[in-house]
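In this section we walk through a basic example: taking a raw amino acid sequence and producing a predicted 3D structure, encoded as discrete structure tokens. The instruction is simple. Fold the sequence below.
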Amino acid sequence: MNIFKMMDSLLRDRDSLYTRAAAGDGLARLCLKLLLLFVVASGLYGAAMGSFRCIHPGYFFSDFELTANGDPVVSGKVAGIDAEARKIYVAKGQSLPKVENAEVCFNVTRPTEPYKVAAVSEEKGYGVITLAADAQLAEPDAWRLPLLVAAKVPALFLLTLVVCCLVLYILNLAFGMGLHFLPTMTLVTFALAATGVMLGVFVPIAVLFAVVTENYHFMKLLHLFVFGVSGLFGVRVLYEGLTRLAPESVGRHKTKALVLSWLLLYSLVGGQLAWTLKPFLGTPYLPATPPFRVESGNIYVSVFESVSQLPRSARR
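The resulting token sequence is shown next.
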């Protein structure tokens, strides 16, 4: 069974896969094929996700503060960037004083490192801050981020599975399912593969929005929506498989309760691992994106902040 035929089976003929799992023959090989399908499909979505940074290398600049000799001079909003000429255009009507030995920081609430200013001028009604010759407004190797995120997305799910696998198995026994470890993991890989296939379906949409929008918070919420829809499809496949493999003595209410407990556990652990493996879109307001940016906090607070920032971004 090749990878495309297995993808078709997950979308249109899942009964054949459930039958193979119930028979218990070749489960290890079946799991490997499902995992391969998941890695390929979710990796493609990860590459589309990481492309946002390459397409919009300057989206991390929002506002600025101009200082001279360590003292604030003026602050305002960034209207545009010419990365090659190292020019920052500020909103029309914003007056910029001619200062010497000046520096500028971007994103006043979470300031970047200061950039040395070579000149302050005006072009077509816009104030222009020209940075020093050694200033770098875009990453020289931004192409690496899509490749990195293509590895991060499947790694996120697989690491979550490794962390949770024993607890998932014990919960299966606690709820009276009585499934052995390998059939239990086979069901979970069904769900992972289904999630990956759905992520792969959304790749063209992710690329489209990465090209047409520069709103970081919108893109962040869009990807969360896609992951949510894909995860729900995976949960549906998981529930169907449990219903087929569960003993007849186990009622549907127990099956639903087990699926819910698995989902809550997987979501909590996966959410925090996603925070540990970030960035996926790129790091806003930083002129260079590190491969990993481990810091305190959690993803749920970050999502709430993005929801609150979305109306403000739309007004800019």
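Looking at the output, two observations stand out. The beta strands are 63-68, 71-82, 87-90, 102-106, 115-123, 126-131. The two ends are 52 Å apart (CA to CA). In the next section we compare this with other chains.
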